[in-house]
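User: Run a structure prediction on this.
Assistant: Running it now.
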Amino acid sequence: MSQIPLMREQIKMSETAVDMHSHVILEVGLPGDTWKYCIERQSLADKSEWFRALLTGDMAPPPSDPPPTISLQYVEKRAFDHLLRYICGDQVHFHSISTARATLDAAHSYLCPGLAKMAVDYMIKNLSSTNVLSIYHGLTLYSINEADELGQILSAPPLPGDDAIEIAVACTRLLNACLGVIDSVADDVLRQEGFEELTIQEVGRLARRDELKLGKETILFNALEKWSASECRRHGIEPTPNNKRDALSDDIWYSVRYLLMTDREFIEGPMASGILSSGESAAIVAKILGHNKHQETAQNSHIIPCRLIATPRNRKSSVVKSKSIMKPGKKECDDNKKNRRKECASQGQRACARVGDLVIRALACVFD
């Protein structure tokens, strides 16, 4: 363990007589990996209301020589070092995302909005696809979730001294920046192991986003399946298809836009996983293939076709690209129509052969 006298008064302790009864030792960090600070109580209490309650309030330890030790195991040691430096007016420099994120936690716990804003600014500046999930995890607890409430707060900025609101506004700014990065590189982010460490609320929030730029909806389904398997293991449960299904609500499972999959993607992915029931799988396959009779049967058997979303997720880049394409001339349009007729005819022949193959494969998956 490191003995780190942060405050200047402690540097002179060996040169002048100091009343140790006025001091306290703060031991910060996890057991076995802590830093210690020998601090004069009143000097720190004058700078922070939170420390005033901790060091001089009714619950403060009585004076003694040697000074009493207060253990703060819930604070990361480097984050606490930044907190003390900021409170004492020293400069704070971040060198890693992990320390900045831990410092934001400390600033939130000790109601220090200035330090929170510094940490937020550093993380926004250094956001990337590789660190965004570590920042996003737990951030919703600090941010303002309702857009209307956020609009009211921003239209009428918090009064000076309203520390909690100032921190919430800063964290909401960081949360929106994280969601922007996740949306833009969703395929990469959803494949990361860090996705499995998110809370169920965080997973649901991402899965429902219209702005996710997914290459394929199977990427989201695979991410949800991995998360549910990890959740089973966290509770000591075998990750069977039924247990994985129960780990997430139907609302989250149906945030996957199965109707945007090809028949092959659905059969070899969600259907083969066993997470969806055979009835659900049959109903979804029927919708993908456009079989109306199967749709009616599914509705009568209380499957959930009404939850199936066929609307593509928002892809602004593809819209912009389409506007830049010039309209074809008349001759080109006529040629295109002829080609489409030929293609439709050939597709119809291939579809007849494919339907029979799909039925056999679907039945094999259901009864395997």
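Confidence is low (pLDDT under 50) at residues 1-17, 146-156, 298-302, 317-328.
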